[in-house]
Automatic annotation (TrEMBL):
The TonB-dependent receptor-like beta-barrel domain, residue ranges: 368-893
Listed GO biological process terms: siderophore transmembrane transport
Keyword line: Cell outer membrane, Membrane, Receptor, Signal, TonB box, Transmembrane, Transmembrane beta strand, Transport
Name the record gives this protein: Outer membrane receptor protein, mostly Fe transport
Signal peptide range in chain numbering: 1-18
Annotated TonB-dependent receptor plug domain residues: 119-226
Family the entry assigns: Belongs to the TonB-dependent receptor family.
Cellular localization per UniProt: Cell outer membrane
GO molecular function, one term: siderophore uptake transmembrane transporter activity
GO cellular component, one term: cell outer membrane
Annotated PROSITE patterns: TONB_DEPENDENT_REC_3 (PS52016)
Length: 922
């Protein structure tokens, strides 16, 4: 790579003193005649382009252009304009007319080629550069929740998960997130950790979101939708940008107090002779994380009326270690004393993002790009437990060759997790480090839980001198003698030992997994002319390594290969009023049958500004590497992934009983023996209660969806976007438990084998939790409506509302992914970029209805998420002479403490001030 950089640098320097042909001019506002900063100027049909500076001036290298050429001038809030340039002489000045709503909003996500959002065949939402810059939330990523149909869940100050159209989760493997075309998921977690490893606010050019199934163009991860984040091009956005934010959170929180948070970012880009350009980015965000301190008693073994802080068997939501419980004779259910999350989690979170890119233009139709991203951070994540992603590292390398009608891209995504840990496991391991026997000697960890309950039982029953009998509090105090106290050296040492002990013997989470991806696309439209045609394909290779802590990979790495290809054709009919588009994609993973995902759409344009759309879309989701290859023996049960190769040395899929039938057999056998029936006879009489399991190997989930919509601009003032959709789902991935005996389940006579039945009674069995699919079918339907209206004197107002309903039908709730989506949600916006003398403001209000959250953190039991509303506000002052903007703002200005997922922290306000210097050293 160093040699490649040197060659590119030498080639670019050789051109520095060559004769240069340039096209230049100034872009201004038609009414005010003021310069327009950041307007984009591109050569039609080429990749050559630039943007205007703060004076509205632009210069474009034209060494390899053949005149005449057509320049396309676009910018947010103004109408598009094209001019023909016949030579490089003279100034090519252009004035642009302000538009009430952005007519020229160009999107690529919907069809993988450029088009206006008004003509999109499917629903699409976009946050443009102006929206990023004027977003009132603390970061642009926080502001995504104000877009129509976007759901957001906050697990941490540094980790927010986004989703569309239901089946939401704190870690969402059904939603694709691309940064400059690179899949931003971590290879081990198999989902993107929000913007922890993404791009900084000052490098984001735009964000596009496709709600709903997008597998037809983007493959298996885009089951629920796709979000494409585009960063700024080094050629177009040159100069130095500096940003500093300082804020406070935890306002009014008991026992915490206000805490500072800080966000610093730098971006510098430079181009040489319009041939070679580079950019560098660095950003660092740090602060005190939100606290998960919901101590509601969720003990499943205690009647709801008996739950609470005085329940001896209390299992508090965000206290860990108290899940370990036992029913003591004459006493009842008793749980161990746990530790609060704040004593286990690292709440001093941060996000460090470093980015560098080299761009070289061979000519105006061919460009090479190398980009490297390094992300390192700490965040809290709510899964089956609360996980501390501590000092987690994600690196990406991207090499791309692109022209005006094609691209070829290869990238690698590499993770390094060695300080991350499971807080629930951590509490349980710490609890086993200090328990003393009745003689005051610390017992070994394997005897600690049993000894703690023995101490409790003896104290409660009055067997301990000096301890009041029949008192749960005094019995607990006696059992807790020697307990490690948070903050002490002994506690911290026990904590550190367990964090760096991976697998079943510790709480640590280790992964050094990676994947490699190559994809390409070519647009044949200019050659065919009769209709539009695009085609593309990709290959991906996973290389997983957890050193035996999650997979059976100590001796050999787990690898997975998959590939896919698509073709898309479009045609305009009836004087270009009707646009038809069809695409089909085929994907193949080495462990599953191939999947076809077609998409058909039609757009009817009454006129340029009013468009009706209809589409049929399909989606599928491959099981994650964990779903396929987990092989974790936790003692009485082994968790086993559903890929056929993962159980090649086992017969569990072919030779096992259903867990329910084993329970029924055991109960009936026990009753017969108790009534005097001989052992062999009791086995023979009840063996037919056993049922051979019929568990299929895992396969992809499937979705079919229909959508209708309208998008139009009325009187150049009102933008309307309405949609309705219906989706059906099958083959949801789930877990099922089976019991494998030593003998064959079926005997030579084709009946249940008595020897296998006897294995159950003699303990010659092993339980397996298998990954498989449910045959149940469920459906969802919903609608959305959005309005944006321009008010005189530069004010704009907007509102949107989303309805999402779920129909379980005849399906078993246990076989279906949790919907986890409010029925109603909505947003309102009011803004003005320049009220007077450079002052501007933006205010957003978000509201959503209450719903029940189901997740593995609470063993799939429902937890209520109450209805809530949030208001984000910012006011800003532009300082043109200093190329600076000062912003004063707040996320959740009224400090409403809200939960967005059950078990995750309560989110309060962030009040901040920010200053941004732009276009320096340009």
């Amino acid at each position: 790579m160093k040699k490649l950089f040197l060659i590119i640098l030498l080639l670019s320097c050789a051109k520095i003193y060559a004769q240069q042909v340039r096209i230049s001019g100034t872009i201004t506002d038609t009414l005010s005649n003021q310069p327009i900063n950041g307007a984009s100027i591109t050569v039609k049909g080429k990749i050559a382009g630039t943007i205007t500076d703060s004076r509205g001036h632009y210069t474009l290298n034209a060494d390899h252009l053949k005149f005449p050429v057509t320049l396309e001038i676009t910018t947010v809030g103004y109408g598009n304009k094209e001019i023909i340039v016949n030579s490089a002489t003279g100034n090519n000045n252009v004035s642009l007319k302000q538009l009430a709503v952005v007519l020229n909003e160009v999107v690529t996500a919907a069809t993988r080629v450029n088009q206006t959002s008004l003509n999109s065949p499917v629903s699409i939402e976009k946050m443009n550069q102006k929206a990023v810059r004027e977003n009132p939330s603390f970061t642009f990523y926080d502001g995504l929740q104000n877009m129509k149909g976007i759901e957001a869940v906050t697990s941490s100050l540094t980790y927010k998960q986004v989703n569309t159209r239901g089946f939401n989760d704190t870690g969402n493997p059904r939603f694709l997130q691309l940064v400059d075309g690179v899949d931003n998921q971590t290879p081990g977690l198999n989902f993107a950790v929000g913007n922890l490893f993404g791009a900084s606010d000052i490098d984001i050019e735009s964000v596009e979101v496709i709600p709903g199934a997008a597998s037809a163009l983007y493959g298996p991860v885009a089951f629920n939708g796709a979000m494409l984040l585009h960063t700024k091009d080094a050629f177009e956005y040159q100069g130095l940008t500096l940003q500093a934010k300082s804020g406070i959170n935890h306002i009014g929180e008991t026992g915490v107090g206000a805490k500072g948070l800080y966000d610093f970012a730098l971006r510098y880009a430079k181009a040489f002779n319009n041939k070679f350009a580079f950019k560098i980015n660095a950003s660092y965000l740090t602060g005190k994380d939100w606290y998960a301190d919901n101590y509601t008693d969720i003990s499943a073994q205690t009647a709801p009326s008996m739950r609470g802080p005085n329940n001896p068997g209390r299992d508090a939501l965000n206290i860990y270690g108290d899940e370990v419980s036992q029913t003591l004779p004459g006493i009842g259910l008793v749980s161990r004393t746990g530790y609060e999350e704040k004593d286990l989690m690292n709440y001093n979170v941060y996000s460090l993002k470093l980015n560098g890119a080299l761009e070289y233009k061979f000519n105006n139709n061919l460009e090479a790009i190398y980009q490297y991203n390094y992300g390192r951070g700490t965040a809290s994540y709510t899964g089956s437990s609360r996980y501390d992603l501590n000092n987690f590292v994600l690196e990406t390398h991207r090499l791309e060759l692109k022209g005006s009608n094609f691209f070829l891209r290869s990238y690698a995504v590499i993770e390094n997790s060695h300080d991350s840990y499971n807080t629930r496991s951590l509490a349980q391991f710490i609890n086993r480090d200090w328990v003393q026997d009745l003689n005051g000697n610390t017992v070994t960890p394997d005897k600690a839980d049993a000894m703690w309950f023995t101490r409790y039982q003896d104290a409660f029953n009055g067997s301990i001198s000096g301890v009041a009998a029949h008192d749960n509090n005094t019995a607990r105090a006696f059992a807790d003698q020697g307990r490690l106290i948070p903050g002490t050296a002994a506690f911290n040492q026990a904590k550190d030992v367990s964090i760096h002990n991976y697998g079943l013997s510790g709480a640590g989470v280790f992964s050094n997994s990676k994947f490699y991806h190559t994809e390409g696309q070519y647009d044949f439209s200019s050659a065919i002319k009769i209709f539009d045609l695009q085609a593309g394909g990709n290959i991906r290779h996973y290389s997983m390594f957890t050193n035996g802590s999650l997979f059976d990979d100590k001796e050999h790495r787990i690898t997975i290969d998959e590939y896919g290809a698509f073709v898309q054709a479009g045609k305009k009919l009836f004087d270009n009023k009707l646009g038809l588009l069809a695409s089909v994609r085929y994907d193949k993973n080495e462990n599953f049958k191939g999947s076809f995902t077609p998409r058909f759409s039609a757009v009817y344009s009454v006129d340029h500004n009013n468009n009706f759309r209809a589409s049929y879309q399909t989606g599928f989701r491959n099981p994650t590497p964990v779903d396929q290859y987990i092989n974790l023996n936790v003692g009485p049960i082994t968790i086993l992934g559903g890929a056929p190769a993962n159980s090649k040395n086992l017969t569990v899929y072919q030779n096992s009983f259903t867990a329910a039938s084993v329970s029924a057999f055991g109960g009936a056998f026990g009753a017969d023996v108790a009534n005097g029936k001989p052992f062999p006879q009791a086995v023979a009489d009840n063996k037919d209660l056993l049922k051979k399991s019929n568990v299929a190997y895992i396969k992809p989930e499937q979705q079919k969806a229909f959508e209708l919509g309208y998008k139009g601009l009325i009187a150049d003032k009102l933008l309307i976007d309405i949609n309705y959709y219906y989706s059906s789902y099958t083959d949801f991935i789930l877990n099922t438990v089976v019991i494998a005996p030593q003998d064959n389940v079926i005997g030579n006579d084709g009946e249940i084998n008595p020897a296998a039945a006897s294995d159950i009674l003699n303990g010659k069995i092993h339980a397996f939790q298998l990954y498989t699919n449910a045959s149940d079918k469920v459906s969802e339907q919903g609608a959305g409506a959005g309005l944006t209206y321009l008010i005189p004197k530069g004010y704009s107002a907007g509102a949107n509302v989303t309805l999402a309903t779920f129909d379980l039908g005849k399906a078993n709730q246990n076989n279906v992914a949790a919907f986890n989506t409010p029925k109603w949600s909505g947003n309102m916006m009011f803004a003005n970029s320049n009220v007077s003398n450079g002052y501007g403001f933006n205010v957003n209000w978000h509201w959503q209805s209450a719903f029940d959250w189901y997740g593995t953190f609470n063993a799939e039991r429902p937890g209520r998420i109450n209805a809530y509303s949030l208001v984000d506000l910012q006011v800003n002052k532009k300082l043109p002479k200093a190329n600076a903007t000062v912003k004063l703002g707040a996320s959740n200005i009224f400090n409403n403490h809200v939960y967005q997922a059950y078990g995750s922290p309560s989110i309060g306000a962030i009040y901040y001030v920010a200053i941004t210097f732009d276009n320096l050293l340009r």
